């Protein structure tokens, strides 16, 4: 089950923050339970899939698009100040939500709620949900932090190996050239000495021929 | 000309490395670079 | 200002979860405000530094150690089930906290609270604090997630460069040896031909001597 809790301000009581808790099974479009509380009283209502579909038809909107709009309105809360206007009448226990555009606003949805006889239970559940979410996010934080540290260690490790490899490659090249030069110059020395012998031999032969 | 060619052929191998004069790092690198072009 | 909200169960009403909100300035030992609520009523009290010091003296504990114990008890809540026992009497509005050891428990602290005339305000603040904490942790999560992705990209990048460097080093070694072998074999060919010439020269000289 998905659940969100967000802050809203009612047009009728802008100074008192209210909390909107919305919970749904698979998708919001398959129906949801909406709970409103001001920290003292609480009202709750269930919106079924057919009502959502009907609402989308009435607004001549594609159902997916309508559900997306609804989800944003009911879960964005204070994160989207001014984007939506919520009105609630305790008499009729009717919660309505309007979407504000530049200069017009249109009714996104209106939900009939029932007053909760024992609001403290609902409020406790809402606070427990918040505390569970905090615990969950803290755990995720710690996991990501550890993951971060591991990645940083791995990065340092492979960066170190890479730097070692670069210097090893340079050292290899220098080392091989040095060896090559030694061996090659040995051969050149040999060639020079053979050449000298050959020249001497040819000198000798020339002289011998002269003698003869 | 042929005589120069012949002179070089006596002094240098086909990769341009002298038979008689000792080589050093720069020269050997140059010879190797030449081989790279050849291949 | 530091603040924590945790769940506790009172010995007198184990089935009803209560929430303990503790807020303090610099350190818990310099005094704190404690608020207890069951989602309907609320009680609050301020504990000043001298009371904390006195309590530590009465318990013959070092103040730092005592404050650490107190912090754990007042903030661990449901995260440390069974470690602490909380009792609260609405008449005296006295909240006491005992630490349970194997077979004994000792009184860690006892706080006089006052009933809050308008609990919904306190409860709203507590829920807002929870929602702010959730938002903050979510933001940290997203930051860590991005950091993770960046580190992973960096790791992949340097791992790729490292692998390239390893193969480049191997290729360099092979390549240099190949070239060196070509140049060296030229010298060996030369030496063989000089040897041959020399041998022929010596043959010739021998024959010449014989002739002579």
From TrEMBL, chain B:
It is found in: Nucleus. Interacts with XRCC4; the LIG4-XRCC4 subcomplex has a 1:2 stoichiometry and XRCC4 is required for LIG4 stability. Component of the core long-range non-homologous end joining (NHEJ) complex (also named DNA-PK complex) composed of PRKDC, LIG4, XRCC4, XRCC6/Ku70, XRCC5/Ku86 and NHEJ1/XLF. Additional component of the NHEJ complex includes PAXX. Following autophosphorylation, PRKDC dissociates from DNA, leading to formation of the short-range NHEJ complex, composed of LIG4, XRCC4, XRCC6/Ku70, XRCC5/Ku86 and NHEJ1/XLF. Interacts with DCLRE1C; the interaction is direct. Interacts with APLF. It comes from the Eukaryota. This is DNA ligase. The chain holds residues 747 to 785 of 911 of the full protein. Belongs to the ATP-dependent DNA ligase family. DNA ligase involved in DNA non-homologous end joining (NHEJ); required for double-strand break (DSB) repair and V(D)J recombination. Catalyzes the NHEJ ligation step of the broken DNA during DSB repair by resealing the DNA breaks after the gap filling is completed. Joins single-strand breaks in a double-stranded polydeoxynucleotide in an ATP-dependent reaction. LIG4 is mechanistically flexible: it can ligate nicks as well as compatible DNA overhangs alone, while in the presence of XRCC4, it can ligate ends with 2-nucleotides (nt) microhomology and 1-nt gaps. It comes from Jaculus jaculus (Lesser Egyptian jerboa).
């Amino acid at each position: 089950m998905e659940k969100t809790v967000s802050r809203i301000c009612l047009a009728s009581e802008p100074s008192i923050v209210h909390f909107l808790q919305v919970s749904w099974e698979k998708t919001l479009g398959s129906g949801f339970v909406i709970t409103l509380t001001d920290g003292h009283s609480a009202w709750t209502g269930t919106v079924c899939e057919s009502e959502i579909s009907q609402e989308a038809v009435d607004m001549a909107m594609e159902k997916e698009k309508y559900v997306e709009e609804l989800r944003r309105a009911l879960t964005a809360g204070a994160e989207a100040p001014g984007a939506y206007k919520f009105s609630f009448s305790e008499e009729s226990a009717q919660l309505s939500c309007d979407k504000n555009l530049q200069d017009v606003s249109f009714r996104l949805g209106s939900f009939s709620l029932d007053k909760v006889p024992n609001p403290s239970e609902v409020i406790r559940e809402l606070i427990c949900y918040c505390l569970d979410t905090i615990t969950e996010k803290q755990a995720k934080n710690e996991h990501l932090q550890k993951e971060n540290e591991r990645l940083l260690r791995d990065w340092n490790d492979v960066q170190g190996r890479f730097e070692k490899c670069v210097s090893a490659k340079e050292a290899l090249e220098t080392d091989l050239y040095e060896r090559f030069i030694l061996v090659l110059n040995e051969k050149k020395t040999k060639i020079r000495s053979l050449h000298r012998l050959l020249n001497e031999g040819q000198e000798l032969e020339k002289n011998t021929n002269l003698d003869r | 000309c042929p005589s120069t060619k012949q002179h070089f052929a006596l002094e240098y191998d086909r990769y341009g490395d002298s038979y008689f004069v000792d080589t050093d790092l720069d020269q050997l690198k140059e010879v190797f670079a030449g081989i790279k072009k050849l291949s």
